[in-house]
Design brief:
heterotrimer; A mainly alpha (349); B alpha/beta (517); C mainly alpha (388); B: 517 residues; alpha/beta; Rossmann fold; 3 domains; 33% helix; globular; C: mainly alpha; 15 helices
């Protein structure tokens, strides 16, 4: 019996069915599908029961409410995709929002655009601080950003003390950003949409963007691969800080008062929005569009329940159920995909 | 320390006088703190050859590979690529110089698609400087056609077999125009067909002029595939030989620095009572109607090709995985399914195939690891003391000659052989009636291997029943009193010691292939 | 975030497709069969080996190890802070201090105990404060509804148990990521608290009970309820450090797979831990309600991050596998002491928050920096010494 020489006769891997995925199949594979469906159903049902829900003002309110969470969720998604997390975003937003109020008081004639730039830079610096601590000291992001959550909040408290700035302290044009609409969209919402679009293209279509997915998918492999992991993770934190800064400026435009406690407790809402939007909590997959829709869904629920005259006390519980549902659906989907693959490969044998 | 020139490294190849060196490493030194990982890393790789690098574990092969890959920077030595001196700061530098390394467990990104995995960091660009997915998919498809393997470029890498992952790594190397391909024990987790496919691809690459450095513990592969063999020992270069001009015995001698006369010292023992009886064990699609028994003092080998269902049966017996029907009995008593604790209480010990992930808690200390199986029996009134733990660990550590800096050190600081001894120690400490060992000597150096074999034989001599899963035929034939051969989830051969030969085992393992011809 | 490298393995070879049979190269080379043991000679011991056979006495003795360990350092820091505060801050060193400090710290202290175990096992629970809030809300409504207080308390503890079991089923048995799940239940349980009590507050608890919860043992200033807290501390410390179950937690915090192979029931262990966090959070909720004599839906909100900060400061690794109850106690008390000292010294709460955050970061960054310094020093020594 020859043990060698028959090698060539052994069949190569049996040919797997080479099917091009159809557009529909691609759509069904989308991680964002459940959240989109949930949003559509929610809006449709609410609108059917209460037509006012989709009135011009109703839509405007929906979008206005979602704007800030949306921007924060997009930034958080960048960080989560790299298998990190940033719990300090609420505190960053608070600091920048109060900073914005202070700037307008100190320099009332500063152009609004300059205020935006300053606010975003401020946020970026805070984000960079997180990123540097995490990448250089090689310490888990959860711990560091939990620490900076307190530190930033403490600085905010120290800075603000009992002071609050109100809408009256700010130029009317600045406040109008949250009132004026273009094609029915509030200006600040348009800003958010532009942010989502830019970040989405970056994540989908550029090499650094794809690197972030690779890093979250397997950080050690990414390092071994020569991907500049430290620089990319730092970038994610800086951009997240920058977006939290933007959200802070917009917060000052949208809400009447900013003070020592502005934005506290937001961090978990932001993470929740990303999770609901199909971003895997351990990195590697998910999209910023999904996270933005997740944010929209979370804020829409509040409005929808009001429109449906559901007891307002139920709102938070329903948000909780939604988050759990998102996690369960994600798991079911991956279990199903794994089973399908197994069957496919079993047939190949 | 030997100088390369003494061993004729520059011996011209009679078949190809024009052979040029694509990669040369001479006298590379690498230290980690006080530890000298590589004292004299020397290898010369020619274009169009497959060059084997062999040595015991700890001989410095991995360090050498990591220097080539740009993961480590050598402290001293000469490093030339295509005749030009190089100094890699990182992996990217190494890649840019045309060196691709394929590790035993490929490092793909599970969430990215196959195509993207090939082109990470250098995705083809289309309009507006954005990544063109269509182009990426097309090029990936081309690569797979070239390699003659059907892998869907659009699927995510998660769930791919190790073999497919390696093919993807090779596709990546080809797309990078790699002149040097380093394969670090690529076949360790592959089945026969997959190994053949990998070798066919390797030969094709060699014929197209690439230099391939092939690291393996398997001499059949080294001698079947490679043109030259470089031997290392204790971090030092020993010799380079033309494959045709040397023998397994000579290479082994150089690897260990001494003769190994008794690799498989199983002593004959009288089989006692039935300890384990498995009947009708079935898990659809994985294994079917598995019947066998293991008696006290007996070593029963579960043989067959990788993927035949051997490990799966063992896991089911031990209660790690579920099974649909059938029974497992220990000393006449049925065992609860899916309950490892019950299996342990009934006297089963299990040395799993993946030491790092399954056998040990790598970050935990040696003593905690060794005492982990004893945590219930060491407890007095439900409480466990560090002293009792340490004493138990020390007793067994001493008996098995485990070498460790301190019992408090993390077990990850130990060498592979010593880690395996800790795994064995923690099971022997439970005084098992049955020991299941899954690939007990995989990735262990030759010296410790013999020690493990001697130990298994000794245990059988003391009346312990042993069920051994092994992919190494010499080990199976040398150690086992009886051989069970599995194929496609069924037992297709039951051979006693006298009947078991390479031919009979192979026949049972591959019978359907014979029949189909 | 719990350790990513353990949360995901690229490909499990066992899950790969069954391989078609073929003549495996692997099995092609029959070796020389040696049926008798020819040699009893032990293979030569390792080469250039600086290590020894196990059981040789090691360099650092047990006592030194304990005195220089991470826990010990936390305790030294705590002692120094207490001494400093006693000397420098007027009125700090008094029974009143002890009393108020402990009363303030009890909720964190309570929840930190099961949280330590949960984080060591490689998971996390963000819903603890919400469970406390839910318990508090339930307590208010049931008491106002005229139920006897003993029954109210029993139902509240059961509610915590059920909430913990809910987390436990999702995480331990369905295998969902605990970070995501407990963010969800954080919202859910707090939401249910709102559903239960709305924005009402219930304050008219039996005076005997509320005064018991703020009473002190004699003149020591130590709150009477500390007796119960100490019992819990001892119980958790014993479970974690001196039982087979505790040993299992450390193992599974490092590697679930390896833990399975030594017979640890991973799912059951985790389920029990979440039962514990749920139950103890209910205790904390009850304590909170009676201490402040007020049942509200937002009681204890935000406490989850304070607890986690204290636990991590106490030396528990967020990746699992490392940590101890004494260390965590020191962490909780350190934050509590600084808090109280600063308050007495009329320093605003602002500084306290900053100090808490900085301590947390310092506690994880410092060991890394120390290790880096040590490595650098070592490398210099090696370079200075002639190589063999």
């Amino acid at each position: 019996m020859s043990l060698d020489g028959t090698v060539g006769a052994a069949p190569a891997h049996p040919t797997a069915p080479h099917s091009r995925p159809s557009a529909l199949a691609n759509l069904l594979r989308l991680r964002e599908l459940p959240v989109i469906l949930a949003l559509v159903v929610l809006v449709a049902v609410t609108a059917a029961l209460n037509p006012l829900f989709l009135s011009e003002q109703g839509i405007k309110d929906l979008l206005l409410n979602a704007t800030i969470l949306m921007i924060l969720a997009v930034g958080q998604t960048l960080v989560i995709i790299t298998r990190n997390i940033d719990l300090s975003v609420g505190s960053i937003l608070g600091l920048v929002a109060f900073g914005t109020g202070s700037i307008f008081v100190a320099a009332p004639n500063l152009p609004i655009i300059a205020v935006f730039v300053l606010g975003m830079l401020f946020g970026a610096v805070l984000g960079a601080l997180n990123g540097l601590l995490i990448t250089i000291a090689k310490v888990p992001a959860l711990v560091i950003t939990l620490g900076t959550l307190y530190i930033f909040r403490g600085v905010n408290n120290a800075w603000a003390g009992g002071t609050q700035y109100f809408a009256g302290d700010r130029p009317e044009a600045f406040g109008n950003l949250s009132v004026d609409t273009v094609l029915g969209f509030p200006v600040i919402t348009l800003i958010a949409v532009v942010v989502v679009a830019i970040v989405a293209v970056y994540m989908l279509g550029t090499r650094p963007g794809r690197d972030l997915y690779a890093i979250g998918s397997d950080p050690d492999a990414a390092r071994l691969f020569g991907i500049p992991v430290t620089r990319r993770v730092l970038l994610a934190f800086v951009v997240n800080g920058l977006l939290a800064g933007l959200a802070g400026v917009l917060y000052a435009s949208r809400f009447n008062s900013v003070g020592a406690t502005t934005g506290s407790g937001l961090e978990l809402d932001v993470v929740a929005a990303a999770v609901v939007g199909g971003v895997a909590i351990f990195g590697g997959s998910g999209t910023v569009v999904g996270a933005a829709i997740g944010a929209l869904l979370l804020t829409t629920i509040t409005s929808a329940l009001t429109a449906l005259r559901v007891d307002k006390f139920w709102q938070q519980a329903i948000v909780g159920i939604l988050i759990l549902a998102a996690v369960v659906i994600d798991r079911l989907a991956s279990v199903r995909a794994a089973r399908k693959l197994r069957m496919l490969e079993a047939r190949n044998v | 320390m030997t100088h390369p020139a003494d061993h004729g490294i520059e011996a011209p190849d009679p078949t190809d006088p024009d052979r040029t060196s694509v990669l040369t490493l001479r006298g590379a030194l690498k230290t980690f703190g006080p530890v000298v990982a590589l004292a004299d890393g020397t290898v010369e790789l020619a274009a169009g050859e497959i060059h084997a690098l062999v040595g015991e574990n700890g001989a410095g092969k991995s360090t050498l590979v990591k220097i080539l890959a740009g993961v480590h920077q050598p402290d001293a030595g000469e490093f030339l690529v295509a005749g030009q001196p190089v100094s890699f700061r990182n992996v990217a530098d190494s890649k840019a110089a045309g060196i691709s390394v394929i590790y035993q467990e490929p490092t793909l990104f599970p969430d990215l698609t196959v195509a993207e995995n090939i082109f990470v960091g250098r995705q083809p660009k289309g309009r507006f400087g954005l990544i063109s997915r269509i182009e990426m998919r097309r090029r990936a498809g081309e690569l797979f056609d070239q390699l003659g393997v059907p892998i869907d470029p659009d699927r995510v890498a998660e769930g791919l077999s190790i073999a497919d992952q390696q093919i993807i790594e090779i596709a990546k190397a080809i797309s990078l125009d790699a002149r040097v391909l380093v394969m670090d024990e690529p076949t360790a987790a592959l089945s026969g067909v997959e190994v053949d496919r990998l070798f066919a691809v390797a030969r094709r690459l060699r014929d197209s002029g690439s230099g391939i450095l092939f690291i393996s513990h398997r001499f059949d592969e080294v001698f079947g595939l490679c043109d030259r063999i470089t031997v290392m020992r204790d971090g030092t270069y020993i010799a380079t030989h033309e494959t045709g001009a040397t023998s397994v015995e000579a290479i082994v001698r150089e690897m260990v620095g001494r003769d190994i006369d008794a690799l498989f010292p199983k002593t004959e023992t009288e089989a006692g009572d039935v300890v384990l009886r498995v009947s009708g064990l079935t898990r659809p699609g994985v294994f079917h109607d598995i019947d066998f028994e293991v008696r006290a003092g007996e070593i029963v080998a579960l043989s067959g090709l990788v993927g035949a269902g051997r490990t799966e049966v063992a896991r089911a017996v031990f209660g790690i995985d579920r099974y649909e029907s059938g029974t497992v009995e220990m000393a006449g008593r049925p065992l609860r399914r899916k309950d490892p604790r019950a299996a342990i209480d009934a006297g089963i010990g299990f040395v799993p195939e993946d030491r790092r992930k399954q056998g040990l808690v790598m970050d935990l200390s040696v003593e905690r690891n060794a005492a982990l199986t004893l945590r219930h029996s060491l407890a007095r009134f439900g409480l466990i003391s560090g002293r009792a733990e340490r004493e138990a660990a020390e007793t067994w550590g001493k008996r098995l000659q485990v070498k460790a800096g301190s019992p408090e050190h993390a077990v990850s600081t130990l060498s592979g052989g010593n880690q395996q001894k800790v795994v064995l120690a923690k099971w022997l400490a439970t005084d098992p009636k049955l020991l299941i060992v899954d690939e007990p000597t995989r990735g262990i150096d030759v010296g410790t291997k013999a020690e493990v074999h001697r130990l298994l034989s000794e245990l059988a001599g003391r009346g312990i029943a042993i069920l051994m899963i092994s992919s190494e035929l010499p080990e199976v034939l040398g150690m086992a009193d009886r051989v069970l051969v599995m194929r496609e989830g069924r037992i297709t051969g039951r051979l006693d010691r006298a009947e078991a030969t390479a031919e009979t085992v192979m026949h049972a393992a591959t019978a359907s292939l014979e029949a189909s011809r | 975030m719990s350790d990513p490298s353990r949360s995901r393995t690229a490909v499990d070879p066992d899950q790969g497709p069954p391989d078609p049979p073929a003549k495996g190269k692997r099995m092609a080379a029959p070796g020389t069969r040696t049926s008798e043991e020819k040699s009893t000679r032990r293979p030569a011991a390792g080469k250039a080996d600086t290590t020894r056979v196990l059981a040789v006495p090691k360099g650092r003795t047990g006592a030194a190890r304990i005195l220089l360990g991470r826990d010990a350092i936390m305790i030294y820091v705590l002692v120094v802070v207490v001494l400093y505060a006693s000397l420098v801050i007027p009125r700090f060193a008094s029974p009143v201090t002890v009393g108020f400090l402990l009363l303030d710290v009890i909720p964190t202290l309570l929840i930190a105990l099961p949280m330590t175990l949960v984080i060591i096992s490689g998971e996390i629970d963000l819903s603890v404060a919400s469970i406390a809030g839910l318990t508090s809300a339930l307590m208010g409504v049931l008491w106002q509804g005229g139920m006897p207080i003993a029954l109210v308390l029993v139902i509240c503890v059961l509610a915590g148990l059920v909430a913990g079991a809910f987390n436990g089923v999702l995480i331990a048995y369905l295998g969902l990521p605990s970070l995501a799940v407990t963010i969800g239940t954080l919202a859910l349980f707090r939401g249910l608290a709102l559903v239960v009590i709305g924005d009402n507050a219930v304050a008219n608890f039996p005076p005997g009970l509320t005064s018991f919860f703020t009473s002190k043992i004699g003149g020591t200033g130590i709150p009477t309820v500390m007796v119960g807290v100490v019992v819990l501390i001892v119980a958790f410390a014993v479970v974690l450090h001196f039982t087979p179950f505790g040993r299992g937690l450390f193992a599974l915090g490092y590697s679930k797979e390896a833990a399975t192979f030594v017979g640890i029931d991973v799912a059951r262990s985790k389920f029990l831990l979440y039962l514990a966090t749920g139950t103890v959070s209910a205790f904390a909720g009850i304590y909170w309600t009676l201490r402040y004599s007020s049942a509200r839906s937002d009681n204890a909100s935000g406490l989850e991050l304070a607890v986690i900060a204290a636990v991590l400061l106490g030396g528990v690794s967020i990746f699992g596998g490392k940590g101890s109850i004494p260390g965590v106690l020191a962490g909780v008390l350190l934050i509590g002491t600084i808090n109280y000292a600063l308050k007495l010294d009329r320093v605003s709460e602002v500084v306290l928050i900053i100090v808490t955050g900085s301590l947390l970061i310092l506690s994880v960054v410092a060991p890394n920096i120390a290790a880096a310094v040590q490595r650098a020093r070592h490398a210099r020594q090696v370079r200075a010494a002639p190589l063999p």
